[in-house]
Every structure is written in structure tokens, then in C-alpha cells.
Give the backbone structure.
Amino acid sequence: MLKISKLYAGINGTTILKGIDLEVRAGEVHAIMGPNGSGKSTLAQVLAGHPSYQVTGGSVTWDGKDLLELNAEERAQSGVFLAFQYPVEIRGVTNAYFLRSALNAVRKARGQEELDPVDFLEVLDEKLKAIGWDDTLMNRPVNEGFSGGEKKRNEILQMAVLEPRLAVLDETDSGLDIDALKTVAAAVSALRRPDNATVLVTHYQRLLNYITPDYVHVLADGRIVRSGGKDLALELEARGYDWLREPAGV
Amino acid sequence: MTAVVTSSAADRYVAEFASFASRTAAAPAWLASARQEAMARFTAAGFPTTRQEEWRFTSVAEIAETPFALAAHDAPVDATQLRALEICEAHRHLLVFVNGRYQPQLSSIAGLPAGVVLGSLRAALGSHEAVVARHFGRTTAAARTPLGWLNTAFADDGAFIYVPRDVQMDEPVQLLYYSAPNGGGAPTVSYPRTLVVVDRGAKLSLVETYGGSAGARYWTNAVTEVVTGEQARVDAYRVQRESGQAFHTAATYSEQGRDSTVTIHPVVFGAALSRHDIVTRLGGQNGHCTINGLYILDDAQHVDHHTTIDHAEPHCESHEYMNGVLDGRSRGVFNGRIIVRPGAQRTDSKQTNNNLVLSEHARADSQPQLEIYADDVKCTHGATLGPIDPQAMFYLTSRGISTAEARSLLTYGFGAEIIDRMEIAPLQAQLDRLIRQRLLGGARG
């Protein structure tokens, strides 16, 4: 589904990713862990197509196509979704209007009919029910005045509405208290399907108590220094990241 | 050299005033002398120049140099253009003015609550002279500009609204000021004047709309005075949709009593050159004042808002939200002055001015001006000016929204944020439509 080979990328002339190799198949959940500054968020932004990042080497194949040839909107339309670490506030645009615009853009790309406001509200209602939330944030401007937890929930709601085939969650657990973390994790688990895949970017192991990954990768200094099963996350929790840095240099 | 231009420009109005005064010799003595005094003040000051701090960014030289003729009261009107300015569903309290003169045949007044006076200023001079005399030219009198004096000198008609004690006007009043050229097409000037008096505990919602013949070159020099009594509430909307060739200079002077709430919504789409001074005085404790405004500019439009919120008494609150969207070679100027008088403790004042600059040739100037003479106050201000936020663009496009749609959505949001604070649904729908038209490159008329 997604195949990253020897990916080099950076921003403002600084190379941050230094040869990433990663393959994600349908139905899988991958966790990418690593210390601050290891390049986790850069990887997430590069996959979503942030125009400020430059790819300087390697390739990313998505569904047999060259992902790097697509701009951000085309990636989203083809089923890639990034849950932002820092969701952006959009003044004057209500959450409902934003969600409908996004869903219609994606539906149009899939060859489906666009939804009018009434039909959209039905879809929205169903998604809100599925993840156990109400509509209090729908008529407020996107992310404006939202608490940290509300912003993260809003990212998950967008994911639920857009039904991506590849979801990249960038530190969705950071800044959440344990209850919010459980709700977000439950929502993410509920959206798992055999034909979609999830990449969780996280600093801490605690999210993985609620979403069980198939694979755990440790990123350090722009490279994957270790891959393993879910037990690797527990080992990281117990031992920290330092023990992994040394072998990377050998 | 400028001095020569100014004096000859003012001279033209002196001669015009002599003829105007002889035509209006039947006016009450107090009014005649108010006009005389205003004319003397204007003559002494002349047209403002960019050497004056208050006019540093806005030159009215073109207005001063253009020989405007006084607009005729019986000029022919394009009914379609006039009706396009109206807000549907606000038809029961609609007053139409052509070149500043009330047009009863185009207006409709029905279903007024008992005691409410809604009509022309000329008629009110006969029927309610005492109230008019008490307030005309008196509101925040010290803050008048030379162009405000010129309006007082020449104002011959306009609207008068009186809402008596405890009366709640649920339906909005709409004042439609329309400028139509005299035959021959020479540039004309009109002096619309609005006097609003809302008594203790009463409530009024008012929409002033300014427009004119598409493509016509004219000057509207308007003054609106709003007197809001204790515990009263006034929502004053103002939509400026003048022709693309027009000049629009105006002032809104507001005084409010204890426990009152006044909200002013200045919205600007039109005119080549527009300057609006808002002066509002919180003259009693626990008063609330909000200015919630929007300007959406294109081409070479120049729009200047100068606002003054005067906290004269303690425990008052003011909020100011001004958003601008600037495209083409347009320029938006905002100067927000907040005065906290000695003793006006526990003042709470917030001001924001956000400008979205869509073109490299457009320009925004934003100046907060805080004058605080009390020590227990909370005053904050902030301004932003810049292009569309690239992070917001990435956020929207990462959801599949196209670059073009994301751009228009982010621009629309600047307007929608202001429109969302309004409380008249049909007006909001009208403004929403105008914003969308403008974003799709619609003509300005």
C-alpha cells in the first residue's frame, strides 16, 4: 500500500530524514516512536505533502503511484490523511462548513456525488454517534478557542468523516489527559478496517496501551534504528531511547 | 500651494452656503445659527490635509479640488439599483432618501410601536423641534472634523428616529441613502444627516445603507448622531456600497448613558475613497460598546476608519473588531483610539484589527492609540497584516480542498467572522452574498 525507500528530506536546507525505509500494508497499524528531534513529525509532514519540506532522495510509492508527485490536495483526495500535531485555527469558517467542503472535495475525486448541507448533516450525525461525540463544536470556527483535547478530537472527527485509507496521526496523544486519550484511542480503533492502514507517530508508549500496533519502529536522527512488534514499545518504555542510539552509529 | 487650493476650495462652499442660507431662511433661529457657526468653523479650518496627524494616510485633495454642485432633490432614480440595496424582510420601517432628501413615495412606514417617531429630519423640525434642538450637533461635539462641520452647515434633511422610554423596536429600521447625479452628469455632493434618540430602557436596531448610481462620480458627506439613554440598547449597522467612482466621508457620533449597550457595525464595500470617523462616548457607568466592522477592497480603493472610544466613566467595557481584506492596489487604514479618562477605573477594553493582504500592491496601515489616565484598567490591542497563512493553506489542502477553494475559504472567513457577530438574519444573508460575489471577482458598480 505504502512503500518508503531510502527517503531523504529536510527543510530550509537542513536534512532531517536520512534514508527512511518503511512498508505499510492494508490492515496494519504501525507505530513510529523516537526521541524529540528524531524526525517523526517531519516524516508525517512529508507524507502529507507540506510544501515547505523538500525531498532530496529516495521514493514513496502509494498504491503503485509516486506519492511525491502529488500535491497535498491530491494526496488527501487519494486517501491520505494527516492528523496534525498542532491543528490550525481557521477564522470565520465553521467546523461543519469546513468538514463538508473537505468531504465534497474527496467525494468528487472518488467520482461520488457531492453532498448538500442536509445530506451532509446526516453523515456527520452518524460519524459523531459512531465515535460517541455530540455536535457542540460543529458551529464554531474551526479549532478557534478549542481546548487542546478538543482540537485533537476534531482531527479524529475529520478522519472519521473523510474515511482515509492511510491515516498518519502525528502526536495525537500529546497534551491529552487520560480520559481524552482513551476516547481518542477508542475512536481510532473503531475506524480500523482491513482495507486501511494507520501510522501512529508518538513519543510515549501510553497511547499504545489503547491501540495495539502490529509494528513498532524507532526513529533516531532521521533513520529507523530498530523495528519490532508491540513488545518493542514496552521495552522502550522501560529502557528509554538512549540504548538504541549507540548501535545506530556503528 | 496647498493652502491656495484649500482656501479657494473652501471659498466655493462659502458662496454656496450664502445661497443655501437664503433659501433656508425659514429655518428655526437655533438651526440657522448652528449652521452659521459650523460654516465658520469649516471655513477657518479648510479641508484637511495629509500634514495633519488625523489625515496623514488619507488625502481628500481630490474632493477639495472637484467642483461639486449641490445634488438636486428631485434627481431621477434607477429603481432597480435602488431596490438592490434594500434588505428584504425589513420593509415595514424603510425610509428612502435621494441625495439626502426624504422620499415618502419610495418609503414605507407601518406597524410602529406607540410613541415611536420615524420620519424625515425636516418634518421633525416641525413636530419634535425640542428634541431635535436638544441633540442636533451636540453629540460628542468636541470631536467634530471639518467635514462634519460642513455637513452641519448644509444638512437640510435626513432621518429622525425617536424611541420613547422602555419601547422595544423588534423590527429593524432601514435608512437607505441613495445618490443620483443631476442631469448633465456634473459631480454632485449631498449631506445626509441622521439623528437617533433612544430613551431610557428602549431598544432600537438600525441599518443605514449608502449607495448610488453605478459609475457615477459624486460625494456623500454624512453625519449620524446616536444618543442612547440609560439601560437602552442600540444596534447600528452601516453598509457603504457607493459607486466605484464615489467619495464617501462620514462620521458617526454616539453618546451612551449608564448601563447602556451600543454596537456599531461599519461595513465597507464601495467608493473610490472612503473615510469614516466613529466617536463614541461611554458617559455612564457599566456601559458596553462594540465596534464590529469589515472592509473588503479591490482596485485602487482607499478606505480609512478612525475610531475613538471614550471611556469617561468607570466599569465600562468596549470591544473592537475590525477586519480588512485588501486586493488589487487598495489601501486600508485603521486608527483605533481608546481614551480612558481619569477616574474611569475598571475599564475593560479590547481592540483587534486583522488585515488580509491578497496582493503585493495592496497595503494596510493599522494604528492603535491608547490614552490611559486611570490605573485600574484592562486594555489590550492587537493588529495583524499579511497574506494568507501558509499553514492554514496546508491544513485545508491536506483535507482535499483545492488550493483555489482553500484561498477563497480563508478569505471568506475574514468577512464571515464579522458577519457572524450581527443579529439581523436578512442583512447577514445580504452581506454574505456580497462577500461571495466580491471573492468571485464581481464588479463593484
Notes: The CA atoms of residues 221 and 249 of chain B lie 5 Å apart.
